[in-house]
Specification:
Chain A: InterPro entries: Acyl-CoA_DH_CS, Acyl-CoA_Oxase/DH_mid-dom, Acyl-CoA_Oxase/DH_mid-dom_sf, AcylCo_DH-like_C, AcylCo_DH/oxidase_C, AcylCoA_DH/ox_N, AcylCoA_DH/ox_N_sf, AcylCoA_DH/oxidase_NM_dom_sf. The complex is a heterodimer. By secondary structure, chain A is α+β, with helices and mostly antiparallel strands. Chain A has twelve helices and nine strands. Chain A has three domains: 114 residues, Orthogonal Bundle (Butyryl-Coa Dehydrogenase, subunit A, domain 1); 98 residues, Butyryl-CoA Dehydrogenase, subunit A, domain 2 (Beta Barrel); 146 residues, Butyryl-CoA Dehydrogenase, subunit A, domain 3 (Up-down Bundle), CATH 1.20.140.10. In chain A, strands 2-3-7-6 form a four-stranded antiparallel beta sheet, covered by helices on one side. Chain A starts with 7 loop residues before the first helix and ends in a 6-residue tail after the last helix. The N terminus of chain A is likely disordered. Chain B is of the alpha/beta class. Chain B has one domain: Rossmann fold (3-Layer(aba) Sandwich). A nine-stranded mixed beta sheet of chain B has the order 9-8-7-10-6-1-4-5-11, with helices on both faces. In chain B, strands 2-3 form a two-stranded antiparallel ribbon. Chain B is globular. Classes of the chains: A alpha+beta, B alpha/beta.
Chain lengths: 401, 260
């Protein structure tokens, strides 16, 4: 990854070492991947960083950004055809990293749009569904969301109660979904519901009668992101609204594997931003007559952060290469989600302590990232669930069912 | 014009974010990764806009860089240029501005020429600021410098040429060479689709001898770099404690500079 291009390089006191890329990981990236990353980074500098602390403070998602993201080719970028850019998984991961160096809420939008809403239509949809939705979603003209979690079904999604029954050739959908990113701004929802034979996915236009989204307010995390409850009240759908090419929990779980990959890359960006902020602050903040970066306790913190960020990047890049070779397993995705998010959260907390009282204000990005990462720690498979997936992978014994 | 072809001269330079270093011969070390000179992104953008406005044609690139470096050209291809020619040759080490212009002019000819050739006013690493006009002279074409706005009407080039006082309106027949100033257009992002497409766009690499340009490098240079010294460090500014009369000192300072 190109962790470099930081203004810190000029003032680096380490003697020729790039403090953001200690392992020279950028050597492992192709020219295309470097260009995707540099472009995504520039996009964040131009379009996200100037406004993010205000959006976060006011609790608004910058909807105007969506068409800009579409023009860049960010939405569904790792999918082929239907207006999508068709990049490698590694490039998608690098773009997620740069988005999340801006804000986890912005990266969440990209993850949900590309991996949770577009991916199931792309992978399991009919040709008509793909043609109807994917080009508009890639261009940012239509926003998608993904309805799996329910108020009483989080880590155990197969206990969902939402259901669709046949009425003639139509489907009638009832139930509700909870904690749905983009729910209140979505034009289309991919909703997973029980049917007579199996859990099925449905492509639901949000202007259909019987669809309602209630946004969740008073969040202290992911404030620059829309989180909603979806309610389906005798929502009537034509037969062709069902995703024809998947049945059972494999459908939603394969989407989650896509999105979790974006997350395990994305959080490296949040961690990098916190580390960068702490390093810059520590080099400038003078106490007892010298920069606090010169004190041993602070150096310990900075080094722990630097090592965590670089190691997390190696994990992300390795998993990206496996994904590009179609070799990645769900347990390996769990490895990355489990450890990278945990490490990013630790880095954010450590960075906050380096910034002292300044660390609690939105003048610096650190506490925003820290609060955001509390959500990321839990969503898309809690830390506990990923622990148990890995536990099962190494022991052969399932601890959660 | 219903179609126009534009060639943009692009330079690939060491990343300005990392401190540059000089080699034993006092030239800038260029052996690391090189990127598209930001000054050239304006020319690429202007070229793409002119081709769009014409309704047809294409943007091509020429560049001269060591070690077959094409990263910066790929950036311009990802923005929308159609093809490129790189001149890369160890013999070019030490080339002066005039040799550079001869090489780029030969590459332009090898691409079949163009209706318009665009270069930046000056590069961000060398700052000689003479190459565009030298290319025009070598090619025998008219040259307009410091273009801040360019419109093509009926085969004629209309340029607003930046001056210290404002701008001159210059018209000129095509083909021609222009140099564009930084910041006059907003360079587009290389879109991710563009980045993917750029991988398959033709990028030909040739040597100076392929182009028939000799002598080049130090052998062809009409100059040698005897020594390099650090620019004088900018002196610290004067700090005035504001005792309520600070404004008067600022006014006096500005009057002394004759700016007010």
């Amino acid at each position: 990854m190109n962790l470099s291009t930081s203004p810190l390089q000029h003032t680096n006191v380490g003697g020729g070492v790039d403090p953001l890329d200690l392992l020279d990981i950028s050597r492992l990236l192709s020219p295309e991947e470097l260009l995707v990353q540099a472009t995504a980074r520039r996009f964040v500098e131009d379009h996200v960083l100037p406004g993010i602390s205000d959006w976060y403070d006011r609790g608004v998602f910058p909807r105007d950004l969506v068409s800009e993201m579409g023009a860049l080719g960010l939405l569904g970028m790792h999918l082929d055809g239907y207006g999508c850019a068709g990049t490698s998984a590694v490039s998608y991961g690098l773009a997620c990293l740069e988005m999340e160096a801006g804000d986890s809420g912005i990266r969440s939008f990209v993850s949900v749009q590309g991996s949770l809403a577009m991916f199931p239509i792309w992978a399991f949809g009919s040709e008509e569904q793909k043609v109807e939705w994917l080009p508009r979603m890639a261009a940012g003209e239509a926003i998608g969301c993904f309805g799996l979690t329910e108020a009483d079904s989080g880590s155990d999604p197969s206990s969902m109660r939402s259901h669709a029954r046949r009425d003639g050739t139509d489907w009638v959908l009832n139930g509700s979904k909870m904690w749905i990113t983009n729910g209140g701004i979505a034009d289309v929802a991919v909703v997973w519901a029980r049917t007579e034979d199996a859990v099925r996915g449905f492509v639901v236009p949000t202007d259909a009668p019987g669809f309602k989204a209630n946004n969740i307010h008073k969040k202290s995390s992911l404030r620059a992101s829309v989180t909603s409850e979806l309610v389906f009240d005798d929502l009537r759908l034509p037969a062709d609204a069902m995703l024809p090419n998947v049945a059972g929990m494999r459908g939603p779980l394969s989407c989650l594997n896509e999105a979790r990959f974006g997350i395990l890359c994305g959080v490296v960006g949040a961690a990098r931003a916190c580390y960068e902020s702490a390093l810059a602050y520590a080099c400038e903040r003078v106490q007892f007559g010298r920069p606090i970066a010169g004190f041993q306790l602070t150096q310990r913190k900075l080094v722990e952060m630097a090592v965590s960020v670089n190691k997390a990047m190696l994990v992300a890049l390795h998993l990206g290469r496996l994904k590009d070779e179609h070799l990645i397993t769900p347990a390996q995705v769990s490895f990355g989600k489990f450890d990278n998010v945990r490490q990013a959260l630790e880095v954010a907390r450590e960075a906050r302590s380096v910034l002292g009282a300044n660390g609690i204000t939105l003048e610096y990005p650190v506490i925003r990232h820290m609060n955001n990462l509390e959500s990321v720690y839990t969503y898309e498979g809690t830390n506990e669930i990923h622990t148990l997936i890995l536990g099962q992978a190494i022991t052969g014994l399932a601890a959660f069912k | 014009m219903e179609s126009m072809n534009v060639i943009v001269c692009v330079k690939q330079i060491p990343d300005p974010a990392t401190p540059g270093a000089l080699g034993a011969d006092n030239t800038l070390k260029r052996d690391g990764k090189l990127i598209l000179d930001e000054s050239d992104s304006y020319g690429v953008e202007m070229a793409l806009q002119l081709v769009d406005a014409a309704g047809g044609g294409e943007v091509s690139l020429v560049s001269m860089a060591p070690n077959g470096e094409v990263s910066g050209m790929r950036t311009a291809l990802a923005m929308g240029a159609a093809k490129g020619m790189l001149v890369s040759d160890p013999a070019l080490q030490g080339s002066d501005a005039l040799t550079t212009a001869k090489v780029l002019a030969a590459a332009i000819n090898k691409l079949g020429g163009a209706d318009l050739i665009i270069a930046a006013t000056e590069s961000s690493d060398g700052y000689t600021g003479t190459v565009p006009e030298q290319i025009a002279e070598v090619l025998g074409l008219p040259s307009v410098t410091f273009a801040k706005k360019v419109v093509i009407t009926g085969g004629t080039l209309n340029v607003n040429r930046q001056t210290e006082a404002g701008y001159d309106e210059v018209t000129c027949p095509l083909p021609a060479v222009i140099s564009v100033t930084a910041g006059v257009v907003e360079p587009r992002y290389p879109s991710f689709k563009g980045i993917m497409a750029a991988k398959n766009k033709p990028l030909e690499t040739v040597t100076a001898s392929d182009l028939g340009v000799t002598p080049v490098g130090w052998a062809g240079a009409g100059q040698s770099i005897v020594s390099v010294t650090q620019a004088e460090a900018r002196a610290a500014g004067e700090i005035i404690e504001d005792d309520g009369e600070g404004y008067a000192k600022i006014v006096a300072f500005l009057e002394n500079l004759k700016v007010i």
